[in-house]
From TrEMBL, chain A:
Gene designation: GATA
Superkingdom: Eukaryota
Protein role: Allows the formation of correctly charged Gln-tRNA(Gln) through the transamidation of misacylated Glu-tRNA(Gln) in chloroplasts and mitochondria. The reaction takes place in the presence of glutamine and ATP through an activated gamma-phospho-Glu-tRNA(Gln).
Keyword Ligase appears in the UniProt entry: yes
Family to which the UniProt record says this protein belongs: Belongs to the amidase family. GatA subfamily.
A GO term from the CC aspect: chloroplast stroma
Source organism: Prunus persica
Pfam families referenced in this protein's UniProt entry, alphabetically: Amidase
Lineage per the UniProt record: Eukaryota, Viridiplantae, Streptophyta, Embryophyta, Tracheophyta
Protein name (record): Glutamyl-tRNA(Gln) amidotransferase subunit A, chloroplastic/mitochondrial
SUPFAM superfamilies: Amidase signature (AS) enzymes
Additional notes on this entry: This protein may be expected to contain an N-terminal transit peptide but none has been predicted.
Catalytic activity: L-glutamyl-tRNA(Gln) + L-glutamine + ATP + H2O = L-glutaminyl-tRNA(Gln) + L-glutamate + ADP + phosphate + H(+)
Gene Ontology biological-process annotations: glutaminyl-tRNAGln biosynthesis via transamidation; mitochondrial translation
Subcellular locations according to the entry: Mitochondrion; Plastid, Chloroplast stroma
Renumbered residue ranges of the record's region Disordered: 32-61
Automatic annotation (TrEMBL), chain B:
Protein name, entry field: Glutamyl-tRNA(Gln) amidotransferase subunit B, chloroplastic/mitochondrial
Lineage: Eukaryota, Viridiplantae, Streptophyta, Embryophyta, Tracheophyta
Known EC number: 6.3.5.-
Keyword tags: ATP-binding, Chloroplast, Ligase, Mitochondrion, Nucleotide-binding, Plastid, Protein biosynthesis
Gene3D superfamilies to which the protein is assigned, alphabetical: 1.10.10.410, GatB domain, N-terminal subdomain
Role of this protein: Allows the formation of correctly charged Asn-tRNA(Asn) or Gln-tRNA(Gln) through the transamidation of misacylated Asp-tRNA(Asn) or Glu-tRNA(Gln) in organisms which lack either or both of asparaginyl-tRNA or glutaminyl-tRNA synthetases. The reaction takes place in the presence of glutamine and ATP through an activated phospho-Asp-tRNA(Asn) or phospho-Glu-tRNA(Gln). Allows the formation of correctly charged Gln-tRNA(Gln) through the transamidation of misacylated Glu-tRNA(Gln) in chloroplasts and mitochondria. The reaction takes place in the presence of glutamine and ATP through an activated gamma-phospho-Glu-tRNA(Gln).
Native source organism of the sequence: Prunus persica
GO BP terms: glutaminyl-tRNAGln biosynthesis via transamidation; mitochondrial translation
InterPro entries: Asn/Gln-tRNA_amidoTrfase_suB/E, Asn/Gln-tRNA_Trfase_suB/E_cat, Asn/Gln_amidotransferase, Asn/Gln_tRNA_amidoTrase-B-like, GatB, GatB_C_1, GatB_Yqey_C_2, Gln-tRNA_amidoTrfase_suB_CS
SMART domains: GatB_Yqey (SM00845)
C-alpha cells in the first residue's frame, strides 16, 4: 500500500527545491518502503528491521546543536521553508512568528559562547491558538477575538520559552476548541497532511497537522473531550492528554474548565513525553493544578538495544469492549486488535474489559461541557477586548457583539449549556450529568485497579472528508465517543499511530488510545515508547512531505 | 474622555477599547445614584427619628393605622474585606484610586485568566461566622452567579450559592437609650464569600458625538462577605442598630473598615408590612442606596408609612415586589425597577476553584484568636457597674474601649476613667476632629492623672489643665507637674501667709464681711487661690480663711 504512493501533483516541485536538500538529521532517509505485510515479529528480529523507529526530534536537535553538526538557524530555516511550502495546502497556522530566525540566531550565539542550553533549546514549537501568547495574536479561532493579543504568556508557553523552545506560530482550531474537525474555525479550514481533502480532526487540528507535516517539531494542543487525541489519530502523530491538573491551564482560554487540559503533540512518544515534562507541574496561578511531583518521564524511555525479549512481561492491558462495538470502522477495529496482539508479543496480558457506563459518557460530556462553556464564554461581551458591535443600547450591544462574534457551533453549545443550567432543568441535566460523571470515574477506577492500562481506538474512524459531517453535528459529536470518558474521569491518555486503513493517496493512519491511572503518565509513556520502537513496517510520514524527509 | 480613563491601560499590549460603550439612557440610573451619594449624611450615629409623614392630613390616620400593622424587615449586608489583595488575584485595592489602575488579566476577566483564592478571605469569613455565632460549613464551595452587566468582567460573579461558609447564627445588640433602650437578638441566616463588581462611571461625551459610560474595574474582584439576616427587625431603628452592630463587629474583628460612605459596608433592606396577627408576610419591597445608618432608619420608616397607608386605604395591591431607591434629598423611596419574575442566575459550581475545606484545628485556632467582641465587652462593662449609657459609649468604638480597658488595667478608678473619657476627652476629640488613637494622651497617663488627683498631689482644676496639655502635646503627668511646679500646696503656714496678705490688701471687703456680708468669703478664697497660682489645697485654704475672717469679729 505504502509503496504505491505518489506525492500529489501540486507538490511535485518539492523534489527540486534546493533549500530542502538540507536534511534534518533526525529524519534519516529510509532505506526502503517495502510493502511486506505487518508481521508480529519478535523482538529479536527488530534489529534487522528496515524501518528505524521514530526518533525524538527534541533529542536529535539537542545532539545536532551541541555537536555543532547543525546550527539552530539552519534547523529553523529548513522547518520554515517546509512550513512555507506546505502551508498553502494545509492552512494549519493562523499566525506564523516573524522572530523565529532571530531567536535561532541568538541561540547560535549562545552556543558559540558555550553557554548552557535549556533542554528545549532550538526546539520549534507550535501553539494552539486558544493558548495565550504575549507577542502573538491569540484568537481561539473566533471572530470575537480577531486581532486580540494577550498581555501575558500562558504558563505552559512561558515554561517552553524558559527552557529554550522557539514558538513558531499559532495553530488553527475549531472556535474555542468546540468541534472535531477544525472546520469550525472562523478563519480557515485545515487539511490533513495524509490527504488534503480530509479533515485533520479537531479541535487541535492545526497543531496535529503541523507536527505531522513537520512544519514544527512538537506542538501544544488542548483536550476537552478528545481534541488532542482524535487529531493525533487522524494525522498519524503522537498525542498526549495529561491527567487533569498535571499542566497549568493558566492562559488556556477556557472551554469547559473541569475538563480542559493542555496536551502535547510529537512525531515520537519521547517528544511528547519530553514536552509534557517541560510544561507540567503546580502553578500558583491555577488553583486546579496539582502539587504532585513531576517524575522524569525520559527515564521511562528504554533504549531498543537494552530491551528484553518480553519487555512488557506481566503488564495487564484491558481492551475496552464497548469501543469495538458497532459503529466503529472495521479497519479501525482490526488495527487496534492488531496492536493488542503486538502488545501480547511484548509480554503483556491483554484481556477485554467492560465499562458498562461507557455509552453514558457522550451525553454527560456534552451537557457538562456545554454548561461550562455557556458560562466561560460570557466574558466575550465586546466590552473590554475583541470585537464589539456598536449599538444604541446595552442589550443590543451584547447581542450584536455575540451574534456576529461567535460561529454557529459555539452558539449551539452556549444555548445548550444555558438551557441545561436554567432553573427547573438544572437537576434533570447538569446535576444528572455530574452523577454520571461520578459513575464513569468509578468504573474507570475499578477497571484500572485490575489493569495497568486500558486500550481502545482513538476514534471510530480514520480521517473523513472535509464537509462530510459539517452539517451533521450529532454525527460529529458521536465521533467523540472514544475520548470523552477519559476527560470526564480526568485520566491521562495517549494516542499513538498503530496502523493504517485504506483511503487517500497513502492510506490513513489509525491511532491507538492508551489510558492510564491518574498521574501515571510515566507508565503510559513507557509502554507507548516500547510499542512505538517495536512497531513493524509502519512509517508515519505523510505523503505530502514523504519525498522530502525520505 | 474615555481615553483618559483608560490611559493607564494603554501600555498593555492587548486591545483595549478606548471608547466606551453605553449610551446615556442606560446609565441614568447611575447618575441618580451618584448624585444621591454626594448628598449623603455622613453621621455614623443614628439620629433620633425624623418625623415621616407623607401628608400631614394623613398623619393622624397613619398613626392610628400603624398600631394595626407590623413591618417585617430583613437586611442583606455586603462587607468589603480589607485584605491586602483582591479575592482572586494579587491586585491591591485602594478606595479612590484613579480608574483602572489596580487591575490585571484576572480581575479584568481576560481570556485564559484563572482565579486563585486569597486565603485571607476564608480567614475573615470564618472570623465573622464565629463572631455571629454561626454554624460553619467545613466543606463549602464557590459557585458562579451568571448575568451580563458591563461592570461584571467575566459575565459571572464568583459567589457561594447552596453551601455558604456560615449559617444559622445570631447577633446581640443593645438599643441606645434615646431610642428606648433594650436588648435585641436578631437571627443571621447566612454568611457567604463573593467578589465585588466594578463600577460604571458616567461622563459627558466630550468630543465624542455620543454620551458614554465607562467601566472602572478597580473594585472588580474585591472580596465581600454577604451577611443575610433573618426577617427579625420591626422598625428603622432596629435595622439601623443591626447595621451599626455589624459595623462594630467587623471593625472589632479587623476584617473591614466598615465605612458606609466608601461602600465598604452596604445594606439592602427587604421590607414588608402585614396586619398584626397575620402569619404570612406581605409583599416584599427591596430598598437600596442606603449610605448611612440614619438613611437606613429613615428609609425604612418612610417605607413602612407608605405601605401602612396603602394597606389602611385598601390599596395594598399597589404594593408590588420591586426595588426602590432611597432619595436622600427628597427623604423618600422611589421605584427603581419592578421585578418581573425571579431572575435566573444559572448558578453552578465554580470549576476553576477547588472546594473550601476547613479543619477543626483551623477553626479552633481562629476562634482562640478572636478579640473580645462588642457584646461580651458590653456585658463586662455592665458588670463593672457602669450605666448602660456609659457601656454603649465605651463599647461603641473598639479603640475607645481599648483605651478605657488599658486605663483600668493601669489601676484607674472605673467611674472616674469613664467620666474623663466621656467628658473632657470626648469633647476634645469632637472639637479637634480626632480619633482616640490620634490624641497624644496615653491610657497610662490618664490613669496617672486620675491617681494624682485622688491622692491630692494636684487639684481637680490643675488636673483638667494638665489633661488638655497631655491631649494636645503629650508628655507625662509627673513631668508636667514638675515642670510647671503644680504640686498642690498643703503647708498651712504658707497658705496662712497668702490669706493674711489678701486680707490686708482688701480692708474694705474685710470690713463688709465682718459687717455681715459673708458671701464675700468666695471672693477672698478666689484671691488667695489666685495668689497661690491655683496650687493651694482648697480645703485647707477655706479652713484657714474662715478662721482668719472670723478671728477678730
Ligand atoms: Zn487583579
Amino acid at each position: 500500500m505504502i509503496s504505491t504512493l505518489q506525492p500529489p501533483r501540486s507538490l511535485s516541485h518539492f523534489r527540486s527545491n534546493p533549500t530542502l536538500l538540507l536534511r534534518y538529521t533526525s529524519l534519516k532517509p529510509l532505506s526502503s518502503l517495502s510493502s511486506q505485510p505487518v508481521t508480529h515479529s519478535t523482538i529479536t528480529d527488530q534489529s534487522q528491521s528496515p524501518n528505524p523507529p521514530s526518533h525524538s526530534q527534541i533529542l536529535s536537535t539537542r545532539h545536532s546543536l551541541l555537536s555543532r553538526h547543525l546550527t539552530a538557524t539552519q534547523l529553523a530555516e529548513s522547518f520554515l521553508t517546509r512550513l512555507r511550502l506546505t502551508e498553502p495546502h494545509l492552512r494549519s497556522f493562523l499566525h506564523v512568528s516573524d522572530s523565529v530566525l532571530a531567536q535561532a540566531r541568538e541561540l547560535d550565539e549562545k552556543i558559540q559562547r558555550n553557554e548552557e542550553l535549556g533542554p528545549l533549546a532550538g526546539v520549534l514549537v507550535a501553539i494552539k491558538d486558544n493558548i495565550c501568547t504575549a507577542e502573538m495574536p491569540s484568537t481561539a479561532g473566533s471572530r470575537v477575538l480577531e486581532g486580540y493579543t494577550p498581555p501575558y504568556d500562558a504558563t505552559a508557553v512561558r515554561k517552553i520559552k524558559e527552557l529554550g523552545g522557539i514558538v513558531v506560530g499559532k495553530t488553527n482550531l475549531d472556535e474555542f476548541g468546540m468541534g472535531s474537525t477544525t472546520e469550525a474555525s472562523a478563519y480557515q479550514v485545515t487539511a490533513n497532511p495524509w490527504d488534503i481533502s480530509r479533515v485533520p480532526g479537531g479541535s487541535s487540528g492545526g497543531s496535529a497537522a503541523a507536527v505531522s507535516a513537520r512544519q514544527c517539531m512538537v506542538s501544544l494542543g488542548s483536550d476537552t473531550g478528545g481534541s488532542v487525541r482524535q487529531p493525533a489519530s487522524f494525522c498519524g502523530v503522537v498525542g498526549l492528554k495529561p491527567t487533569y491538573g498535571r499542566v497549568s491551564r493558566f492562559g488556556l482560554m477556557a472551554y469547559a474548565s473541569s475538563l480542559d487540559v493542555i496536551g502535547c503533540f510529537g512525531t515520537s512518544v519521547a517528544d511528547a513525553g519530553i514536552l509534557l515534562h517541560a510544561i507540567s507541574g503546580h502553578d500558583r496561578l491555577d488553583a486546579t493544578s496539582s502539587k504532585r511531583e513531576v517524575p522524569d518521564f525520559s527515564a521511562q524511555f528504554v533504549s531498543m538495544n537494552l530491551l528484553e525479549s518480553k519487555p512488557l512481561k506481566g503488564l495487564r492491558i484491558g481492551l475496552i469492549r464497548e469501543t469495538l462495538d458497532d459503529g466503529v470502522d472495521t479497519g479501525v477495529t482490526s488495527a487496534v486488535r492488531t496492536a493488542a496482539l503486538h502488545l501480547e508479543e511484548l509480554g503483556c496480558c491483554v484481556t477485554e474489559v467492560s465499562l458498562p457506563s461507557f455509552s453514558l459518557g457522550l451525553p454527560a460530556y456534552y451537557i457538562l461541557a456545554s454548561s461550562e462553556s455557556s458560562s466561560n464564554l460570557s466574558r466575550y461581551d465586546g466590552v473590554r477586548y475583541g470585537n464589539r458591535v456598536a449599538a444604541d443600547e446595552l442589550n443590543s450591544q451584547y447581542m450584536d457583539s455575540r451574534a456576529k462574534g461567535f460561529g454557529s457551533e459555539v452558539k449551539r453549545r452556549i444555548l445548550t449549556g444555558t438551557y441545561a443550567l436554567s432553573a427547573g432543568y438544572y437537576d434533570a441535566y447538569y446535576k444528572r450529568a455530574q452523577q454520571v460523571r461520578t459513575v464513569i470515574q468509578k468504573s474507570f477506577k475499578t477497571a484500572l485497579d485490575e489493569h495497568d492500562i486500558l486500550i481502545s481506538p482513538a476514534a471510530p474512524s480514520a480521517a473523513y472528508k472535509i464537509v462530510e459531517k459539517k452539517n451533521d453535528p450529532l454525527a460529529m459529536y458521536a465521533g467523540d465517543i472514544m475520548t470523552v470518558n477519559v476527560n470526564l474521569a480526568g485520566l491521562p491518555a495517549m494516542v499513538l499511530p498503530c496502523g493504517f486503513v485504506e483511503g487517500g493517496p497513502a492510506g490513513l493512519p489509525v491511532g491507538l488510545q492508551m489510558i492510564g491511572a491518574a498521574f501515571d503518565e510515566g507508565k503510559l509513556l513507557k509502554v507507548a515508547h516500547i510499542f512505538e520502537q517495536t512497531l513493524q513496517n509502519c512509517r508515519f510520514v505523510p505523503p505530502l512531505i514523504a519525498d522530502e524527509v525520505a | 474622555m474615555a481615553s483618559t480613563i483608560f490611559r493607564s491601560l494603554h501600555s498593555h499590549p492587548f486591545l483595549f477599547h478606548p471608547t466606551a460603550l453605553i449610551r446615556r439612557k442606560y446609565v441614568i440610573l447611575y447618575c441618580t445614584m451618584r448624585s444621591a451619594q454626594t448628598q449623603t449624611a455622613t453621621q455614623e450615629k443614628v439620629k433620633p427619628q425624623v418625623k415621616v409623614s407623607p401628608h400631614s392630613t394623613q398623619s393622624k390616620a397613619l398613626e392610628k393605622a400603624s398600631k394595626d400593622y407590623e413591618a417585617v424587615i430583613g437586611i442583606e449586608t455586603h462587607v468589603q474585606l480589607n485584605t491586602l489583595t483582591k479575592a482572586f488575584c494579587s491586585c491591591p485595592y485602594n478606595y479612590g484610586s484613579p480608574p483602572n489602575t489596580s487591575v490585571c488579566p484576572i480581575c479584568m476577566g481576560l481570556p485564559g485568566a484563572l482565579p486563585v483564592l486569597n486565603l485571607k478571605v476564608i480567614e475573615s469569613a470564618v472570623k465573622v461566622g464565629l463572631a455571629l455565632n454561626c454554624k460553619l460549613s467545613l466543606n463549602s464551595k464557590f459557585d458562579r452567579k451568571q448575568y451580563f452587566y458591563p461592570d461584571l468582567p467575566k459575565g459571572y460573579q464568583i459567589s457561594q450559592f447552596d453551601v455558604p461558609i456560615a449559617t444559622s447564627g445570631y447577633i446581640d445588640l443593645d438599643l441606645p437609650l434615646e431610642f428606648g433602650g433594650g436588648h435585641r437578638k436578631f437571627g443571621i441566616t447566612r454568611v457567604h464569600m463573593e467578589e465585588d463588581a466594578g463600577k460604571l462611571l458616567h461622563s459627558e461625551g466630550g468630543s465624542y458625538s455620543q454620551e458614554t459610560a465607562e467601566v472602572d474595574l478597580n473594585r472588580a474582584g474585591v472580596p465581600l462577605l454577604e451577611i443575610v439576616s433573618e426577617p427579625d427587625m420591626r422598625n428603622g431603628i432596629e435595622a439601623a442598630e443591626y447595621a451599626a452592630e455589624l459595623q462594630r463587629l467587623v471593625r472589632y474583628l479587623g476584617v473591614s473598615n466598615g465605612n458606609m460612605q466608601e461602600g465598604s459596608l452596604r445594606c439592602d433592606v427587604n421590607i414588608s408590612v402585614r396586619p398584626i396577627g397575620q402569619l404570612q408576610f406581605g409583599t416584599k419591597v427591596e430598598i437600596k442606596n442606603l449610605n448611612s445608618f440614619s438613611s437606613v432608619s429613615r428609609a425604612i420608616d418612610y417605607e413602612i408609612s407608605r405601605q401602612v397607608l396603602l394597606h389602611s386605604q385598601g390599596q395594598d395591591k399597589e404594593i408590588v415586589q420591586e426595588t426602590r431607591l432611597w432619595e436622600e434629598g427628597a427623604q423618600k423611596t422611589v421605584t427603581m425597577r419592578k421585578k418581573e419574575g425571579l431572575a435566573d442566575y444559572r448558578y453552578f459550581p465554580e470549576p476553576d476553584l477547588p472546594g473550601v475545606f476547613l479543619t477543626t484545628d483551623y477553626v479552633d485556632g481562629i476562634r482562640n484568636s478572636l478579640p473580645e467582641l462588642p457584646e461580651t465587652k458590653r456585658r463586662r462593662y455592665e458588670k463593672m457597674g457602669l450605666s448602660m449609657q456609659d457601656v454603649l459609649f465605651l463599647a461603641n468604638d473598639m479603640n475607645v474601649a481599648e483605651f478605657f480597658d488599658t486605663t483600668i488595667t493601669k489601676g484607674a478608678d472605673v467611674k472616674l476613667a469613664t467620666n474623663w473619657i466621656m467628658g473632657d476627652i470626648a469633647a476634645y476629640m469632637k472639637n479637634e476632629k480626632l480619633t482616640i488613637n490620634e490624641i497624644k494622651l496615653t491610657p497610662q497617663e490618664l490613669a496617672e492623672l486620675i491617681a494624682s488627683i485622688k491622692d491630692g498631689t494636684i487639684s481637680g482644676k490643675i488636673g483638667k489643665e494638665i489633661l488638655f496639655e497631655l491631649l494636645a502635646k503629650g508628655g507625662t503627668v509627673k513631668g508636667l507637674i514638675e515642670a510647671k511646679d503644680l504640686v498642690q500646696i498643703v503647708d498651712p503656714a504658707e497658705i496662712e501667709k497668702w490669706v493674711e496678705k489678701v486680707l490686708s490688701e482688701n480692708p474694705k471687703q474685710l470690713e463688709q464681711y465682718r459687717g455681715g456680708k459673708t458671701k464675700l468669703q468666695g471672693y477672698f478664697a478666689g484671691q488667695v487661690m489666685k495668689l497661690s497660682k491655683g496650687k493651694a489645697n482648697p480645703g485647707l485654704l477655706n479652713k484657714i480663711l474662715l478662721e482668719k475672717l472670723n478671728a477678730k469679729s
